[in-house]
Design goal:
The chain contains 2 helices and 17 strands. With about 260 residues, the chain is mainly beta. It folds into 2 domains: about 110 residues, no CATH class; about 110 residues, Immunoglobulin-like, CATH 2.60.40. The strands form 4 sheets. Strands 1, 4, 5, 8 and 9 form a 5-stranded mixed β-sheet that branches. It has a 4-stranded antiparallel β-sheet with strand order 3-2-6-7, with no helix packed on it. It is globular and about 60 Å long.
Length: about 260
Amino acid sequence: MTTHRNTFRALALALAGALFAACDKNTVQELPFEPLLSTRVKFFNFGVNAPQVNFYADQQKMTAVQSGTGSEATTGVAYGSVGNGNAYSQLAAGAYTLTGRIAATTDKDLPIATVNATIADGKYYSFYMSGFYNTTTKTVDAFVVEDPVTPPADYSVAYVRLVNTISNATHPLILYAQYTTGDTTRFDTLTAGVPYQGVTTFATIPTGVYNLFARYQDSTANKISRTGVSLLGGHLYTVGTRGDITITSTTATNRPFLDNTTNW
Protein backbone atom coordinates (compact mmCIF):
# COMPACT_ATOMS: atom_id res chain seq x y z
CA MET A 1 0.00 0.00 0.00
CA THR A 2 2.84 2.38 0.84
CA THR A 3 4.46 1.76 -2.54
CA HIS A 4 1.24 2.61 -4.37
CA ARG A 5 0.80 5.74 -2.26
CA ASN A 6 4.34 6.94 -3.06
CA THR A 7 3.81 6.26 -6.76
CA PHE A 8 0.61 8.31 -6.70
CA ARG A 9 2.41 11.21 -4.99
CA ALA A 10 5.21 11.12 -7.57
CA LEU A 11 2.70 11.24 -10.43
CA ALA A 12 0.86 14.13 -8.78
CA LEU A 13 4.09 16.11 -8.38
CA ALA A 14 5.06 15.44 -11.99
CA LEU A 15 1.65 16.63 -13.18
CA ALA A 16 1.89 19.77 -11.06
CA GLY A 17 5.34 20.49 -12.47
CA ALA A 18 4.05 20.13 -16.01
CA LEU A 19 1.15 22.47 -15.33
CA PHE A 20 3.50 25.02 -13.75
CA ALA A 21 5.82 24.84 -16.76
CA ALA A 22 2.85 25.45 -19.04
CA CYS A 23 2.36 28.81 -17.32
CA ASP A 24 5.74 30.09 -18.53
CA LYS A 25 5.31 33.63 -19.88
CA ASN A 26 7.12 32.60 -23.05
CA THR A 27 4.36 30.24 -24.15
CA VAL A 28 2.33 31.21 -27.21
CA GLN A 29 -0.57 28.79 -26.78
CA GLU A 30 -3.04 28.59 -23.91
CA LEU A 31 -3.83 24.86 -24.02
CA PRO A 32 -1.50 21.95 -24.82
CA PHE A 33 -4.18 20.07 -26.79
CA GLU A 34 -6.21 22.87 -28.34
CA PRO A 35 -7.72 22.09 -31.78
CA LEU A 36 -5.81 23.14 -34.87
CA LEU A 37 -6.95 26.43 -36.40
CA SER A 38 -7.25 26.82 -40.16
CA THR A 39 -5.71 30.30 -40.43
CA ARG A 40 -1.93 30.90 -40.42
CA VAL A 41 0.33 33.96 -40.04
CA LYS A 42 4.11 34.38 -40.40
CA PHE A 43 5.93 37.24 -38.69
CA PHE A 44 9.02 38.95 -40.15
CA ASN A 45 11.31 41.51 -38.52
CA PHE A 46 12.65 43.29 -41.61
CA GLY A 47 12.75 46.76 -40.02
CA VAL A 48 16.30 48.09 -40.40
CA ASN A 49 17.84 48.85 -36.96
CA ALA A 50 14.70 47.61 -35.21
CA PRO A 51 15.13 45.96 -31.80
CA GLN A 52 14.23 42.35 -31.17
CA VAL A 53 10.48 41.91 -30.78
CA ASN A 54 7.73 39.51 -29.83
CA PHE A 55 4.71 39.54 -32.12
CA TYR A 56 1.15 39.73 -30.84
CA ALA A 57 -2.39 39.41 -32.19
CA ASP A 58 -4.31 41.70 -29.81
CA GLN A 59 -3.02 40.45 -26.43
CA GLN A 60 -2.16 36.94 -27.61
CA LYS A 61 1.57 36.35 -27.98
CA MET A 62 2.29 34.70 -31.32
CA THR A 63 6.10 34.37 -31.17
CA ALA A 64 8.52 33.89 -28.28
CA VAL A 65 12.04 32.78 -27.42
CA GLN A 66 12.24 29.87 -25.00
CA SER A 67 13.49 30.64 -21.51
CA GLY A 68 14.84 28.09 -19.05
CA THR A 69 14.47 30.40 -16.04
CA GLY A 70 10.68 30.56 -15.76
CA SER A 71 10.84 34.30 -16.50
CA GLU A 72 9.99 35.81 -19.86
CA ALA A 73 12.98 35.99 -22.21
CA THR A 74 14.34 39.44 -23.00
CA THR A 75 15.24 38.36 -26.52
CA GLY A 76 12.85 38.00 -29.41
CA VAL A 77 12.75 37.95 -33.21
CA ALA A 78 15.85 39.83 -34.38
CA TYR A 79 16.23 41.92 -37.53
CA GLY A 80 16.33 39.75 -40.63
CA SER A 81 14.60 36.85 -38.88
CA VAL A 82 11.22 35.14 -39.04
CA GLY A 83 9.25 34.25 -35.91
CA ASN A 84 8.78 30.69 -34.67
CA GLY A 85 11.62 29.28 -36.73
CA ASN A 86 10.08 30.29 -40.07
CA ALA A 87 6.83 28.45 -39.29
CA TYR A 88 3.31 29.77 -39.61
CA SER A 89 1.46 30.53 -36.36
CA GLN A 90 -2.16 29.47 -35.84
CA LEU A 91 -4.78 32.16 -35.42
CA ALA A 92 -8.56 32.14 -35.35
CA ALA A 93 -10.28 34.17 -38.04
CA GLY A 94 -11.30 37.69 -37.09
CA ALA A 95 -10.22 41.34 -36.84
CA TYR A 96 -6.94 41.89 -34.98
CA THR A 97 -4.44 44.52 -33.99
CA LEU A 98 -1.15 42.87 -34.94
CA THR A 99 1.90 44.32 -33.21
CA GLY A 100 5.62 43.86 -32.85
CA ARG A 101 6.59 44.66 -29.24
CA ILE A 102 10.07 45.22 -27.81
CA ALA A 103 11.40 42.09 -26.12
CA ALA A 104 14.26 43.74 -24.17
CA THR A 105 13.98 44.89 -20.56
CA THR A 106 14.12 48.56 -21.57
CA ASP A 107 10.74 49.57 -23.07
CA LYS A 108 9.56 46.00 -22.49
CA ASP A 109 6.41 45.19 -24.54
CA LEU A 110 6.29 48.63 -26.15
CA PRO A 111 4.51 48.28 -29.54
CA ILE A 112 6.77 49.63 -32.27
CA ALA A 113 4.89 48.23 -35.29
CA THR A 114 1.11 48.04 -35.59
CA VAL A 115 -1.27 46.83 -38.30
CA ASN A 116 -5.02 46.44 -38.01
CA ALA A 117 -6.01 43.48 -40.16
CA THR A 118 -8.95 41.18 -40.74
CA ILE A 119 -7.80 37.57 -40.91
CA ALA A 120 -10.11 35.42 -43.03
CA ASP A 121 -10.83 31.80 -42.21
CA GLY A 122 -8.66 29.24 -43.95
CA LYS A 123 -6.17 31.75 -45.39
CA TYR A 124 -2.45 32.37 -44.88
CA TYR A 125 -0.79 35.73 -44.21
CA SER A 126 2.59 37.34 -43.58
CA PHE A 127 3.20 40.32 -41.28
CA TYR A 128 6.30 42.37 -42.16
CA MET A 129 8.08 45.00 -40.12
CA SER A 130 9.68 47.13 -42.83
CA GLY A 131 11.56 50.32 -43.64
CA PHE A 132 13.75 51.96 -40.96
CA TYR A 133 13.29 52.01 -37.19
CA ASN A 134 12.84 55.57 -35.85
CA THR A 135 14.74 55.77 -32.55
CA THR A 136 12.97 59.01 -31.57
CA THR A 137 9.38 57.88 -32.01
CA LYS A 138 10.29 54.21 -31.41
CA THR A 139 8.22 53.12 -34.39
CA VAL A 140 8.79 51.23 -37.63
CA ASP A 141 6.60 50.59 -40.67
CA ALA A 142 4.61 47.38 -40.98
CA PHE A 143 2.17 45.75 -43.40
CA VAL A 144 0.35 42.47 -43.98
CA VAL A 145 0.07 40.50 -47.22
CA GLU A 146 -2.02 37.46 -48.01
CA ASP A 147 -0.09 34.31 -48.91
CA PRO A 148 -2.12 32.37 -51.51
CA VAL A 149 -0.88 29.01 -50.25
CA THR A 150 -2.51 26.05 -51.98
CA PRO A 151 -1.22 22.66 -53.17
CA PRO A 152 0.82 23.27 -56.36
CA ALA A 153 -0.82 22.43 -59.67
CA ASP A 154 2.53 21.36 -61.14
CA TYR A 155 5.21 19.65 -59.03
CA SER A 156 7.83 19.89 -61.77
CA VAL A 157 8.28 23.65 -61.28
CA ALA A 158 8.91 26.02 -58.37
CA TYR A 159 6.67 28.98 -57.54
CA VAL A 160 8.32 32.31 -56.69
CA ARG A 161 7.05 35.78 -55.78
CA LEU A 162 8.61 39.04 -54.55
CA VAL A 163 7.81 41.22 -51.51
CA ASN A 164 9.56 44.60 -51.22
CA THR A 165 10.27 45.88 -47.69
CA ILE A 166 13.00 48.43 -48.62
CA SER A 167 11.59 51.91 -48.05
CA ASN A 168 14.50 53.82 -49.61
CA ALA A 169 14.36 51.98 -52.93
CA THR A 170 13.65 54.92 -55.24
CA HIS A 171 11.97 52.79 -57.93
CA PRO A 172 10.02 49.53 -57.99
CA LEU A 173 12.21 46.43 -57.98
CA ILE A 174 12.09 43.59 -60.51
CA LEU A 175 13.27 40.07 -59.63
CA TYR A 176 15.42 38.13 -62.12
CA ALA A 177 16.79 34.58 -62.00
CA GLN A 178 19.89 33.30 -63.80
CA TYR A 179 20.48 29.59 -64.40
CA THR A 180 23.66 28.19 -65.91
CA THR A 181 24.32 24.59 -66.95
CA GLY A 182 27.28 23.71 -69.16
CA ASP A 183 27.52 26.31 -71.90
CA THR A 184 23.90 27.38 -71.54
CA THR A 185 22.77 30.36 -69.46
CA ARG A 186 19.12 31.26 -69.06
CA PHE A 187 18.02 34.64 -67.66
CA ASP A 188 14.38 34.85 -66.54
CA THR A 189 12.31 37.88 -65.54
CA LEU A 190 10.19 36.60 -62.66
CA THR A 191 8.17 39.65 -61.65
CA ALA A 192 6.97 43.05 -62.69
CA GLY A 193 8.20 46.09 -60.78
CA VAL A 194 7.31 45.92 -57.08
CA PRO A 195 7.03 49.17 -55.08
CA TYR A 196 7.71 49.47 -51.35
CA GLN A 197 5.33 47.21 -49.39
CA GLY A 198 4.17 45.63 -52.64
CA VAL A 199 3.88 41.93 -53.48
CA THR A 200 3.51 39.95 -56.70
CA THR A 201 1.65 36.78 -57.54
CA PHE A 202 3.60 33.52 -57.78
CA ALA A 203 5.51 32.91 -61.02
CA THR A 204 6.68 29.45 -62.11
CA ILE A 205 10.28 28.50 -62.83
CA PRO A 206 11.93 25.15 -63.57
CA THR A 207 13.62 23.39 -60.66
CA GLY A 208 17.26 24.37 -60.29
CA VAL A 209 19.93 26.37 -58.49
CA TYR A 210 19.72 30.05 -59.44
CA ASN A 211 21.45 33.36 -58.99
CA LEU A 212 18.82 35.94 -58.07
CA PHE A 213 18.99 39.66 -58.85
CA ALA A 214 16.79 42.64 -58.05
CA ARG A 215 16.96 45.67 -60.34
CA TYR A 216 15.17 48.95 -60.73
CA GLN A 217 12.80 49.22 -63.64
CA ASP A 218 14.52 50.29 -66.89
CA SER A 219 17.94 49.40 -65.46
CA THR A 220 20.44 46.67 -66.15
CA ALA A 221 22.36 47.25 -62.91
CA ASN A 222 21.87 44.77 -60.08
CA LYS A 223 20.81 46.56 -56.88
CA ILE A 224 20.73 43.28 -54.90
CA SER A 225 22.25 39.89 -55.70
CA ARG A 226 22.14 36.46 -54.14
CA THR A 227 23.83 33.40 -55.59
CA GLY A 228 23.23 29.66 -55.30
CA VAL A 229 19.53 29.67 -54.35
CA SER A 230 17.90 26.24 -54.67
CA LEU A 231 14.32 26.29 -55.97
CA LEU A 232 12.66 22.89 -55.68
CA GLY A 233 9.71 21.62 -57.67
CA GLY A 234 6.34 21.74 -55.95
CA HIS A 235 7.43 24.43 -53.45
CA LEU A 236 6.24 28.01 -53.03
CA TYR A 237 8.87 30.65 -52.20
CA THR A 238 8.63 34.28 -51.16
CA VAL A 239 11.73 36.32 -51.95
CA GLY A 240 11.73 39.38 -49.70
CA THR A 241 13.93 42.43 -50.23
CA ARG A 242 15.19 44.04 -47.02
CA GLY A 243 17.91 46.40 -45.84
CA ASP A 244 19.28 49.77 -46.88
CA ILE A 245 19.48 50.05 -50.68
CA THR A 246 22.31 52.62 -50.45
CA ILE A 247 24.80 50.28 -48.72
CA THR A 248 27.38 48.74 -51.04
CA SER A 249 29.21 46.62 -48.45
CA THR A 250 28.81 42.87 -48.97
CA THR A 251 29.08 42.12 -45.24
CA ALA A 252 27.16 44.92 -43.45
CA THR A 253 24.16 43.70 -41.46
CA ASN A 254 21.88 46.29 -43.04
CA ARG A 255 23.06 45.77 -46.63
CA PRO A 256 20.30 45.15 -49.20
CA PHE A 257 19.49 41.46 -49.15
CA LEU A 258 17.23 38.92 -50.85
CA ASP A 259 15.61 36.69 -48.24
CA ASN A 260 14.16 33.38 -49.49
CA THR A 261 11.34 31.91 -47.41
CA THR A 262 9.40 28.74 -48.10
CA ASN A 263 5.60 29.06 -47.94
CA TRP A 264 4.84 25.45 -48.94
